[in-house]
Design a protein that fits this description.
By secondary structure, the protein is an alpha/beta fold. 44% of the residues lie in helices and 17% in strands. The strands form two sheets. It has an eight-stranded mixed β-sheet, with helices on both faces. A seven-stranded parallel β-sheet has the order 3-2-1-4-5-6-7, sandwiched between helices. β5 (122-126), α5 and β6 (144-147) form a beta-alpha-beta unit. The longest helix is centred in the first third of the chain and has 28 residues, at 68-95. The protein is elongated and about 65 Å long.
Length: 379
């Protein structure tokens, strides 16, 4: 069997595709798997590193503006689109896949369009509660549509009824128990732990809001806090150091029960130990929060396509599985009040944790593989 995956642009598209492809390779080691992406985004690094054959096409998105530079960009994009469709057809004809699978990103468009025109079975996976433009267009044409969040269905026109599969979660996230994680981090079982981060690069609005909160909590003995300022937030480390936090390593500061890091490289341990998680609302992070049954305060990034993180967050909020503060409303006081409310009410905290856990789909890889393989068998 031959499988062709098309995805790219962000880790949120690429990692679920890799997890699904790796599972298919586990259960069908004889299968041939190829990825199509672009040469100038992270798929060019991540896909070969995972051991999969990788081909590239040249494609980018349109700009929603009438400015001269945007119009020039869009004219070039049209030419690239025509070229990318020809490149996609060539790769597909040479590889002769049994199924073509799209996991989002602009690159999925020409590849899946070409596969549909060539009569090859196709399916797509949508990671967010509000679908991207490419998947909105493809949903009308492909054989199957897979969703991470049921809420996405209302924003789609589709050829066939979508299937809820969830989003693959990294295996290590599920391996640590709260007790093991707390022992590893030297945090007492009866203390409360808040974990906060704004993604790998960090988020300045969250760092600003957390500064006063962490400095205040450093004086307490029953609330522990681990915060990542992100790799773009080195100036915040200096600010914490100026306010009495001691450097325990090059990128880690500590004061009382609070620890500030440049980057969290043991997220599986920190997440397992946490009682409350504060962060953005990317699809992968939310799937991990659900899988581990964690209460969360979500601060969606307003800088993403279609404001999809807001819709991702609301999928939990509407089920009493999280709380939300939009970035435009974010203040240190508002966030502090929400943290205090949740940590002081164990029953409320447990209810939110239980509701988040109820949203988790832990066999997502299996469900996705089942849909893909069904298209091979029904072809």
């Amino acid at each position: 069997m031959k499988f062709l995956f098309a995805t790219g642009g962000t880790a949120g598209h690429i990692n679920p595709a890799l997890a699904s492809a790796q599972y298919i390779r586990e259960i069908h080691p004889e299968s041939e798997i190829m990825f199509i992406g672009t040469a100038d985004h992270m798929e060019a690094r991540l896909v070969p590193a995972a051991g999969f054959e990788f081909k590239t096409i040249e494609i980018n998105g349109f700009r929603r503006s009438l400015s001269p530079s945007a119009m020039m960009h869009n004219a070039k994009t049209v030419m690239k689109l025509l070229k990318s469709e020809a490149e996609s057809k060539k790769i597909i004809r040479e590889f002769a896949p049994d199924v073509v699978i799209g996991f989002g990103g602009y690159v999925s468009g020409p590849v899946l369009d070409s596969a549909v025109k060539l009569g090859i079975p196709t399916c797509i996976h949508e990671q967010n509660a509000y679908p991207g433009i490419t998947n909105k267009q493809l949903a009308k044409k492909v054989n199957r549509v897979m969703l991470t969040v049921e809420d996405a269905k209302q924003h789609l026109e589709y050829k066939n009824e979508p299937v809820l599969t969830g989003l693959p979660v990294r295996g290590e996230i599920l391996r640590k128990s709260r007790e093991e994680a707390r022992e590893e981090l030297a945090i007492p079982d009866d203390a409360m732990l808040v974990l906060s981060f704004g993604g790998s690069l960090g988020a300045a609005p969250l760092n600003d809001a957390m500064f006063d909160i962490i400095c205040k909590n450093a004086e307490k003995t029953n609330i522990y806090h681990i915060h990542s300022v992100g790799t773009n937030g080195k100036d915040y480390l200096e600010k914490f150091e100026e306010n009495g936090f001691e450097k325990v390593s090059e990128n880690v500061l500590r004061k009382g029960c609070c620890e500030v890091r440049l980057y969290i490289d043991n997220m599986d341990v920190c997440m397992a130990a946490a009682d409350l998680v504060i962060g953005r609302a990317g699809a992968s992070s939310l799937s991990e929060i659900e899988a581990m049954g964690k209460a969360s305060i979500l601060i969606p990034s307003p800088y993403v396509a279609e404001n999809h993180q807001y819709h991702n967050a609301m999928a939990l909020v509407n089920r009493n599985a999280a709380r939300i503060i939009e970035e435009k409303d974010l203040t240190s006081q508002k966030l502090s009040d929400m943290i205090d409310e949740l940590l002081s009410d164990k029953e409320l905290l447990f209810e939110i944790q239980k509701n988040a856990k109820a949203m988790a789909i832990l066999d997502s890889r299996e469900k996705i593989a089942e849909i893909i393989l069904s298209l091979v068998h029904n072809a």
